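Exercise 7. Given the encoded structure of a 434-residue chain, write a plausible sequence.
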């Protein structure tokens, strides 16, 4: 199993993610995504959007504000109940989430027993003030979930999209939680990205849609190449359910520290729409033409973490192999997720090879995400591309000047094919999509 340290090292060495504010000692709350990380994260989000919005006629997207009226969070219940139990060790004064302690009576920092304070309910929302005056009236929160931006726009979206039940509204964006113990690299941070969809349906159909979305979301991870042995669905016990949920399952990944959540799929009932109707005085019901009655829809919500899921794909893709007595590191990412799909590598730095291969890279760049690399020996460049997950390398050598063909090397099998430059685009498209 790939250790956390291995992935953190790879991320720093190759430029997937760096601690935020690193030159000032780091914040331990957030990460900055480097040149490779930003591509991988964007590909994960694009695949989610494609599967949840672009390929469906019954889901539309929105992009709501991070800062919303405080009344949103009063109505949703977050201001009063979005808390974690916080305990402090009386000896070393470190603070922990009580429900995440491996041993409830022992401090994980100093090892002493029975030194914890009584748990205190700590609200996880990050606070700030709107405008120049820091008064209670100007207090606002950075959103802790993207979902509420969808609920408060329910009537707007219904009006402009003219959808009939069932339909969904999807959103990808930043969320913020003042986590007591951020950690495990990008797994738990105070600033992160979510990919959420609220599926509005008739209350009588909610259970059946819940099953549908659990299955669809599980298949999404598997279709993008996640190892089925590392993925499981775990139903929540009654004591774990969020204040809005009637039923929840987690999609969990087998991390090096054990099974942990990638996504929650919840039956939120009509809780949020009713709360916002009540607090805003606006009618957030739906007129069902079939029965001629008004109904407040139920909501099934698949809520995934974009940054956390990206992290899981990175771990899942990592493997090492022995090749002719040397170790090879491979990121076996699906071509739809890989930061670069193709690397174009002239065999030497001689202009006679660099110039034509640069033209090939420009041409391929219109169709694929391409890296062009002329540094180091070809062997070292292949290893680098293997380690960052590039599925195919195109090498332009001296023979290419004669036969107008290039060598295409496969990341996983290391097999090489000679392909004419005139049919290279089509060949790569077939290999990458197949
Ligand atoms: N709207 C429902 C909701 O927000 P959640 O289970 O609290 O549900 C959904 O969050 C997903 O967001 C989680 O499964 C996880 O992937 C991600 N997530 C939540 N808190 C996070 C954090 N502090 N850091 C990174 N990802 C987080």
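Solution.
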């Amino acid at each position: 199993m790939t250790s956390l340290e291995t992935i953190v090292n790879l991320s720093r060495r190759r430029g997937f993610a760096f601690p935020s504010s690193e030159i000032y000692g780091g914040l331990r709350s957030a990460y900055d995504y480097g040149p490779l990380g930003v591509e991988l994260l964007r590909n994960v989000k694009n695949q989610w959007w494609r599967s949840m919005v672009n390929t469906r006629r019954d889901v539309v997207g929105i992009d709501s504000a991070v800062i919303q009226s405080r009344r949103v969070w009063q109505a949703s219940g977050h201001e009063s109940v979005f808390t974690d139990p916080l305990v402090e060790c009386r000896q070393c004064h470190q603070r922990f989430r009580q429900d995440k302690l491996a041993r409830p009576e022992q401090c994980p920092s100093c090892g002493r027993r029975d030194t914890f304070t009584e748990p205190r309910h700590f609200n996880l929302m990050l606070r700030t003030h709107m405008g120049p005056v820091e008064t209670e009236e100007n207090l606002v929160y950075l959103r802790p979930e993207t979902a509420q931006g969808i609920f408060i726009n329910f009537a707007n979206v219904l009006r402009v999209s003219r959808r009939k039940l069932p339909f969904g509204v999807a959103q990808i964006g930043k969320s913020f939680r003042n986590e007591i113990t951020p950690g495990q690299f990008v797994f738990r941070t105070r600033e992160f990205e979510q990919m959420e969809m609220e599926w509005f349906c008739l209350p009588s159909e909610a259970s059946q849609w819940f099953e549908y979305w659990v299955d669809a979301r599980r298949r999404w991870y598997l279709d993008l190449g996640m190892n089925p042995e590392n993925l499981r669905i775990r139903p929540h016990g009654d004591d774990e359910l969020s204040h809005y949920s009637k039923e929840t399952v987690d999609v969990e990944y087998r991390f090096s520290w054990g099974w942990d959540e990638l996504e929650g799929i919840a039956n939120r009932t009509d809780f949020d729409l009713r709360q916002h109707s009540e607090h805003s005085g606006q009618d957030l019901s739906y007129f069902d033409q079939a029965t001629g009655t008004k109904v407040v829809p139920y909501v099934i919500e698949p809520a995934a973490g974009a940054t956390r899921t990206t992290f899981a794909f990175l771990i899942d893709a990592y493997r090492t192999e022995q090749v002719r007595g040397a170790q090879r590191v491979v990121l076996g990412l699906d071509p739809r997720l890989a930061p670069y799909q193709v690397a174009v590598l002239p065999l030497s730095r001689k202009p006679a090879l660099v110039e034509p291969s640069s033209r090939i890279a420009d041409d391929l760049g219109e169709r694929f995400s391409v890296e062009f690399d002329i540094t180091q020996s070809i062997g070292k460049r292949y290893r680098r591309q293997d380690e960052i997950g590039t599925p195919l390398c195109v090498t332009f050598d001296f023979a290419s000047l004669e036969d107008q063909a290039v060598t295409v090397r496969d990341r996983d099998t290391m097999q090489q094919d000679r392909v004419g430059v005139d049919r290279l685009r089509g060949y790569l498209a077939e290999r990458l999509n197949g």
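Remark. The radius of gyration is 25 Å. Students should compare their own answers with the one above.
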